[in-house]
Amino acid sequence: MKVLCVTGGCGFIGSNFIRLMLAGHPGLSILNLDKLTYAGNPENLADIENNSRYAFARGDIADRAFLEEALSRGPVDAVVNFAAESHVDRSILDSGPFVRTNVVGTQVLMDVCRELKIGRFVQVSTDEVYGSLGPDGLFTEDTPLAPNSPYSASKTAGDLLVRAYHHTFGFPAVITRCSNNYGPYQFPEKIIPLFISNALAGQSLPVYGQGLNVRDWIHVEDHCRGVEAALLKGRAGEVYNFGGRCELTNIELTRTLLRLLGKPESLIRHVTDRPGHDLRYAIDCSKAERELGWSPRISFADGLKSTIDWYLGHGEWVEHIRSGEYAKYYEQQYGGRL
């Protein structure tokens, strides 16, 4: 593999994946395609934008003409699709962008990959397609799909299209599904960076309901290594789950963050619960461990401390997000507006 296309590479997970692949594969070049919506931040990759093995093109994966032109510039060997609308709360307010990117975009991207005979496709998905667990049990790759939000429903639809393209056309696709990520460069609408930045500013931390919803947490670096393993070793037509084996209630997570930041629990503010809020997610990642030789390496204690340290050391990055300044960076670098 000489040329890898990463869609959504200016986002949180995509930008971490691009760094991982450039560092670990000296002969690899990467083409990053990103629409640069609110969560696609060019500053996430500012340190590598002049790397001779990295190229960027701005565009929408639902735009067939854009994809055909971008992917025809050189022989692309594989595509990893991170491009997605991914915030549940936003999908409740307006599901339209989620359907366009996560469903139509996935379909158009696969059609162009088939047309150009690209030899490998990885669909990066989420454990939310499985729905909600009770107090016991784990999601496996065979758990029935039962999405409960417009976001997870759109990701489920995209995954089913990938499955159908493999079955119907022999399309060389692998699907990955992961639990909640955390780490550097995460857009601060997600719980960990939001609560870190709010706490540092002395602002309240809004916890849904009583904070008893449970999530399994994985460091973004471990997730990216999993996607890499699926790209290089995964069997076409298969699904691989990645999790961190670290289940926490939201209130436990919140209190841990406040303790590590030296801030009082009086900053916690309980708010009305989100509609249809899934109770618990937890991943069985034994298939990925068995078939791909992958396992999570970063403990939550170490990962959370390093994440807090990163945000403490990147206050300017956080402030650019919160103020919208990062959009000005985009205008200067690429022209136009977000």
TrEMBL record:
One of its GO terms (biological process) is nucleotide-sugar metabolic process. SUPFAM superfamilies: NAD(P)-binding Rossmann-fold domains. Pfam families: GDP_Man_Dehyd (PF16363). The keyword Cytoplasm does not apply. Belongs to the NAD(P)-dependent epimerase/dehydratase family. dTDP-glucose dehydratase subfamily. NCBIfam families: dTDP_gluc_dehyt. This is dTDP-glucose 4,6-dehydratase.
